[in-house]
Recover the amino acids of this structure.
């Protein structure tokens, strides 16, 4: 077998870092080869970020880095240094759920809900760029998020509903 | 409602009257009770759980397809710092399996490994990395045996059999039964078609990878939280293998991040973490990798089929002989049931007066197959619906008309003794034909474009439980509290289909309370009454009945007291909008919490149970247990495709689907299930397949999300969904299933549409571009299997149909002897 | 959970520092840009660098400069290129290629330099360590035999980059920097003959930028074949560039990719096209000639026979799209 680094190798000693997650600074220590996905879930207990492959092949682990959706399974915890990380836990504010969350719930866009955090964050980024996305835009921009339950249709409808409400400035029904 | 043989009290009559006046909840689309938790990331799936002192487990799996285990050396793993326990199969010699007839799995292999991926040794360590490193230090010495990878070879029995049980050698199960006189039926036909078709295996691919966390409670009991669809069956298997009384084993099913049948077997990794937790006295978690999920599998069986059907000129069938050969993989799983299912439901859509079914399931050295959405029925449905399309062309009929003419009558009994209840296939076909513009499109679109039609039916719950018992299939307890809250307990498991919401809605309908006032405790063998699990599309019907009964009983108690207090006849009481009141004088009433208090003062604590057992089926022959259901759902779909004439690439442009659901409990969830089923069916139709490298020891060729092709947003066409609601007398509020049925028409509809587009038959699923191209270049304009092996049937059970004056039993003597009598 | 093996990690600020670090760390060090190719490979244990040198702070490797020619910083994200309106207009073939890479999420992370230096792919190779152990490994990593072509002495892992054939077609050059200095090579010269030695770039070199000459009146297209509209690597791809003189081909480049370890420049077809109009007959013949160079084997998605057929169809379609 390929030699793994021995357990006492210096590459295995933890680094201490301040991570900006959901608007708060967290002092976290983790080994340098941990992905942000692992740091969030295992070291910060933010288990809202899910995983389905850990190889960039499903989109389930999507988070926002400075507002841009990225795959937390293919980025190191180290690499989030100096960036603003947003996870599903930070999507709802003190005054309630994000319009996308409400619309997803109302229209049944979350069946098992496992892909949902990734879709919501990806959708949030889409709306930030294009507040009234066409179906074609949604197909393209959500092409990196797999869902085995919904067939995507309710997800599109929910994003469109949220977009319309956000345009009108009414957060929910 | 059926299933209640108690006489109708005035209180109950009041509920009937209220329901007859209209539903408050049923058929509407309130937000799912667990939706906000899911959209805010609060839902805890199994891998989201952790506990202090928790250990992490990794399993070393076989890297050979078939071998005897000669020795296992775990010393290097044990020596690794951070490794707390190493476990081998010797510690768990008791076999298990989902079906009582196939107890052929071990939590870790004992003496033989049967496929690449079979579990051999488990390690518990302080973290997952250490456990991973540890398993790589384990040395297993194997003596390789000759593997077999396909059932046409396996049936010949030249290899050492995988198991020492089964019908013979590597034939796990062989069945043959005939209802009516099939040969006579063929003789009476104007057209007899014979087709050989193949349906490749595919898998569930839930987005969530299986995970489990087990620990020993301070009092010695064992608890496991797991991504399972069937906590009850897991409970039984754990208690058996670990030799602990069920009362001391607690199984909690976490919300499943998708299941589709892939989490309905008790799994080796679940038993392994439990054993490790007992050994180490620490919580132990396992989270499978995606590759391991492919090894769990239990997905769609690859099935080679031969179907021979006699048709009259008008398209009606005279009889059918269906043969299927299933590639079972390494273990039994649900396979015996799957085998029967490949022959069970051909008869419930169209009238098949005489019917014969022969089925064989073989063991092969691949991950075990089992139940995937549609369990055993999509494969024969594909063969049947494609053959009907061929028959229509041969007879010069429109495929929609042909089907409409031969529909099985509602309320009738099929040749194989299935009791059909409500039957809305006709309206389903009419709907999709009209909406799609079928009459202007079929046979009339330009080259490359085409439409295809196909239909299906599915059970709303299996009529019999997996292990023989006379107890209810689902139980629900409803407990009312003084604050107006309603606590509902049920063993059902929400796998995303929304069964929690259905449970709450049924109770809310009966008690007239808000969904927000209902608290659910589900899927916990310690606290909830048994529900057999989220499989066979049984939950809405069975749990729905049980919930109705429990809520009705609670309502009855409350109504009795309130009637006294308000001095109105109980039959006039209505429960709505969190109030109980007189229907003739709505002002005269009280808030629901007050009503509970009045009743509790009179009767004491109010906690009522309800349960449900499906009605007995008319079929009494051996094998009649697979197929019966309280009700059958029906679906029809039209698929429109665009086929690239040069590359064979099939793009699906639009789908129209109609589903007879009896009555929607939650319409939004029903449509969600239809769309999800359509999606999954399209994946099967076009691209999903399990494939193995027989050149390299039978490894799974593509065990990843990238290589196993699940359709993305780009492949999903617009879908127009129509619901046909004709309440079924056996369903709660008339409801039937929707979780599986709508998937089934997709594969044949795509194949039929490809024929309409380019005039070739792809008699094989998936319909991939290379097959379309090959068919276009073939002389017979067909791509598909050319031959079907001899299933070596020696004895066929013969059952008289109802028309023949049969009584649902198989009279002795069996056919072999009968033939002797004839010839003598 | 698939996890990364341990490594040391550096994130220098300049290309020169990168070069110095690479020289100092030796062949066990690797550059990481977006990590979208390297991290999965490391998780599957087929690339196991002891040291990672990240480009994420090397600002000089970013940016798009356009005058007549175009210069792309190697570490620019695919998404930045996709959203660069002027680039899309000027080099639509490149835009098509970039925009077809995997998924929007991945393009937010992956870089153009990483795409050029992408490891070759094979479905006997892009698997977990345990899986590869089950097949006795293969020549590309830890084993001795090529399971795709057991009698072969070379590895047939496929160059699966979308941008590479376009860069070759457009006549781009790549600039590589090491502690010894800088060199600029034509795009095609970057690629080795074999799936193992797939780059001629030395381990101590960093790709700093890509230069694409002024295309004049030449037009280009890129066509990619894959199973799904997202995620999937090409299983056959063609980049075509044609400069017309009236209705006749003055000059052309046809490049196939994802049909072998190295991008294929279709010299024969290009010679045939010279001076001819893009009639049905001509494009069909050119596509046939081009298709001869494709040697797809059974180590990607889709059947190799099908890919071989389809690459011709797509080549013809590419040429048709370039008609005046
Ligand atoms: C699911 C999935 C789907 C994909 N689909 C596609 C696809 O359809 N088409 C496609 O082309 N690619 C695809 N990719 C591959 C890859 O993500 C992209 O090619 C991406 O552009 C790689 O860039 P990166 O910056 O992430 O590279 P990295 O992973 O950071 O690096 C890749 C390689 O290039 C080297 N490298 C990177 N930058 C430099 C530099 N400046 N100088 C020298 N060496 C360097 C690294 O050492 C490494 O060997 C896919 C990947 C995944 C995981
Ligand atoms: S082409 Fe051959 S040597 Fe190369 S990766 Fe594939 S199997 Fe291995
Ligand atoms: S977990 Fe699948 S893409 Fe990150
Ligand atoms: S809702 Fe289950 S995977 Fe998307």
């Amino acid at each position: 077998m390929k030699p793994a680094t021995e357990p006492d190798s210096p590459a295995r000693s933890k680094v201490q870092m301040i991570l900006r997650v959901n608007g708060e600074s967290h002092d976290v220590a983790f080994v340098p080869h941990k992905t942000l996905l692992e740091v969030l879930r295992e070291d910060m207990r933010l288990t809202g970020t899910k995983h389905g492959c850990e190889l960039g092949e499903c989109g389930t682990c999507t988070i926002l880095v400075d507002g841009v959706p990225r795959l937390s399974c293919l980025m190191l915890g180290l690499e989030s240094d100096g960036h603003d990380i947003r996870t599903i836990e930070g999507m709802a504010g003190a005054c309630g759920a994000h319009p996308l969350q409400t619309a997803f719930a109302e229209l049944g866009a979350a069946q098992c809900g496992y892909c949902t955090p990734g879709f919501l964050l990806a959708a949030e980024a889409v709306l930030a760029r294009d507040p009234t996305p066409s179906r074609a835009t949604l197909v393209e921009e959500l092409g990196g998020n797999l869902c085995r339950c919904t067939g995507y249709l309710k997800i599109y409808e929910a994003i469109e509903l949220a977009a319309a409400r956000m345009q009108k400035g009414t957060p929910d029904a | 409602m059926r299933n209640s043989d108690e006489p109708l009290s005035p209180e109950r009559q009041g509920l009937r009257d209220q329901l007859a006046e209209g539903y408050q909840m049923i058929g509407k689309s309130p937000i799912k009770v667990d939706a906000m938790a899911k959209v805010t990331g609060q839902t805890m799936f199994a891998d989201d759980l952790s506990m202090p002192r928790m250990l992490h487990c990794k399993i070393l799996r076989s890297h050979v397809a078939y071998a005897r285990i000669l020795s296992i050396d775990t010393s290097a793993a044990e020596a690794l710092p951070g490794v707390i326990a190493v476990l081998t199969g010797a510690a768990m010699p008791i076999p298990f399996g989902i079906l009582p007839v196939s107890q052929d799995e071990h939590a870790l292999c004992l003496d033989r490994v049967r496929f690449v991926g079979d579990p051999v040794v488990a390690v518990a360590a302080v973290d997952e990395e250490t456990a991973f490193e540890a398993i790589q230090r384990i040395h297993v010495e194997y003596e390789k045996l000759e593997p077999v990878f396909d059932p046409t070879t396996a049936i010949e029995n030249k290899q050492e059999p995988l198991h020492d049980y089964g019908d013979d050698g590597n034939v796990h199960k062989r069945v043959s039964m005939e209802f009516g006189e099939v040969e006579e039926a063929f003789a009476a036909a104007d057209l007899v078609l014979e087709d050989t078709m193949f349906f490749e295996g595919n898998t569930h691919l839930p987005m969530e990878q299986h995970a489990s966390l087990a620990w020993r409670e301070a009092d010695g009991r064992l608890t496991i939280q797991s991504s399972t669809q069937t906590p009850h069956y897991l409970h039984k298997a754990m208690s058996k293998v670990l030799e602990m009384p069920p009362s001391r084993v607690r199984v909690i099913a976490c919300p499943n991040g998708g299941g589709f049948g892939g989490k309905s077997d008790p799994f080796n990794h679940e038993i392994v973490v439990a054993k490790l937790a007992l050994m180490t006295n620490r919580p132990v978690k396992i989270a499978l990798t995606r590759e391991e999920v492919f090894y769990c599998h239990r997905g769609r069986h690859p099935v080679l089929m031969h179907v021979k059907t006699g048709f009259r000129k008008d398209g009606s069938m005279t009889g059918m002989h269906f043969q299927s050969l299933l590639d079972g993989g390494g273990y039994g799983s649900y396979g015996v049931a799957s085998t029967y299912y490949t022959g069970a439901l051909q008869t419930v859509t169209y009238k098949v007066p005489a019917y014969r079914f022969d089925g064989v399931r073989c063991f092969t050295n691949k991950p075990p197959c089992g139940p995937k959405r549609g369990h055993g029925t999509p494969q024969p449905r594909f063969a049947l619906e494609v053959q009907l399309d061929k028959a229509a062309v041969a007879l010069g009929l429109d495929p929609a008309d042909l089907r409409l003419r031969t529909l099985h009558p509602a309320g009738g009994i099929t040749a194989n003794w299935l009791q059909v209840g409500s039957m809305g296939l006709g309206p389903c076909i009419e709907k999709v034909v009209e909406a799609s513009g079928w009459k202007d499109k079929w046979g009339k679109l330009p080259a490359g474009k085409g439409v295809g039609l196909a239909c299906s039916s599915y059970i709303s719950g299996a009529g019999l439980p997996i292990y023989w018992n006379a107890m209810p299939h689902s139980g629900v307890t409803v407990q009312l509290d003084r604050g107006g809250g309603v606590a509902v307990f049920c063993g059902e498991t929400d796998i995303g289909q929304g069964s929690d919401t259905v449970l709450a809605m049924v109770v809310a309908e009966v008690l007239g309370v808000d969904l927000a006032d209902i608290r659910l405790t589900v899927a916990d063998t310690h606290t909830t009454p048994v529900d057999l699990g989220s499989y066979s599309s049984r939950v809405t019907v069975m749990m729905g009945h049980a919930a109705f009964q429990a809520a009705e009983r609670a309502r009855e108690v409350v109504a009795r007291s309130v009637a006294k207090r308000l001095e109105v006849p109980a039959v006039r009481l209505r429960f709505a909008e969190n109030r109980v009141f007189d229907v003739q004088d709505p002002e005269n009433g009280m808030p629901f919490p007050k009503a509970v208090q009045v009743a509790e003062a009179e009767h004491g604590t109010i906690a009522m149970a309800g349960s449900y057992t499906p009605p007995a089926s008319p079929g009494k022959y051996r094998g009649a247990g697979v197929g019966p259901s309280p009700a059958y759902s029906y679906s029809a779909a039209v698929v429109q495709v665009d086929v690239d004439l040069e590359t064979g690439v099939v793009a699906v442009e639009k789908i129209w689907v109609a589903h007879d659901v009896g009555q929607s409990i939650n319409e939004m969830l029903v449509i969600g299930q239809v769309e999800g089923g359509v999606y999954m069916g399209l994946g099967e139709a076009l691209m999903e397949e399990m494939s193995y490298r027989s050149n390299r020891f039978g490894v799974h060729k593509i065990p990843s999300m990238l290589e196993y092709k699940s359709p993305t947003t780009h492949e999903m066409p617009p879908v127009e969904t129509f619901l046909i609601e004709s309440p079924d007398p056996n369903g709660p509020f008339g409801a039937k299933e929707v979780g599986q049925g709508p998937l089934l028409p997709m594969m044949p509809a795509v194949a039929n549409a490809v024929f309409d587009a380019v005039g070739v038959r792809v008699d094989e699923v998936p319909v991939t571009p290379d097959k379309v191209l090959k068919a276009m270049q073939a002389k017979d304009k067909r791509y598909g299997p050319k031959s079907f092996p001899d299933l070596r049937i020696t004895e066929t059970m013969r059952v008289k149909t109802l028309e023949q004056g049969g009584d649902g039993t198989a009279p002795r003597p069996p056919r072999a002897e009968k033939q002797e009598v004839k010839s003598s | 959970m698939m996890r990364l093996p341990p490594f040391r990690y550096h994130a220098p600020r300049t290309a020169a520092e990168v070069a110095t670090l690479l020289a100092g760390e030796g062949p066990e060090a690797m550059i990481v840009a977006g990590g979208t190719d390297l991290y999965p490979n490391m998780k599957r244990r087929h690339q196991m660098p002891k040291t990672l040198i990240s480009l994420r702070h090397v600002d000089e490797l970013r940016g798009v400069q356009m005058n007549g020619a175009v210069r792309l910083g190697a570490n620019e994200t695919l998404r930045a290129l996709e959203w660069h309106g002027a680039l899309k207009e000027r080099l639509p073939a490149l835009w098509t290629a970039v925009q077809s890479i995997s998924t929007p999420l991945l393009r937010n992370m992956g870089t153009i330099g990483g795409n050029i230096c992408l490891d070759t792919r094979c479905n006997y190779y892009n698997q977990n360590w345990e899986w590869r152990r089950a097949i006795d490994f293969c020549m590309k990593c830890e084993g001795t035999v090529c399971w795709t072509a057991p009698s072969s002495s070379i590895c047939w892992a496929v160059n699966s980059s979308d941008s590479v054939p376009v860069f070759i077609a457009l006549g781009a050059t790549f600039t590589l920097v090491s502690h010894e200095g800088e060199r600029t090579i034509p795009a095609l010269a970057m690629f080795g003959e074999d799936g193992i030695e797939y780059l001629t770039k030395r381990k101590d070199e960093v790709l700093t930028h890509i230069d694409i000459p002024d295309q004049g009146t030449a037009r280009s297209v890129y066509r990619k074949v894959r199973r799904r509209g997202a995620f999937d690597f090409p299983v056959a791809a063609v980049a075509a560039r044609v400069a017309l003189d009236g209705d006749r081909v003055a000059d052309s480049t046809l490049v196939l990719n994802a049909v072998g370890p190295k991008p294929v420049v279709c010299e024969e077809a290009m010679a045939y096209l010279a001076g001819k109009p893009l009639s049905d007959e001509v494009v069909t013949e050119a596509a046939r000639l081009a298709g001869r160079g494709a040697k797809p084997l059974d180590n990607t998605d889709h059947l190799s026979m099908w890919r071989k057929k389809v690459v011709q169809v797509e080549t013809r379609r590419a040429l048709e799209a370039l008609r005046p």
In short: Chain C has a mean pLDDT of 97. The interface with chain A takes residues 1-9, 34-36, 39-40, 43-45, 48, 50, 54, 56, 79, 102-106, 108-109, 129, 133, 142, 229-231 of chain C (CB under 8 Å). Residues 59-117+158-212 of chain C form a domain with the Uridine Diphospho-n-acetylenolpyruvylglucosamine Reductase; domain 3 fold (CATH 3.30.465.10).
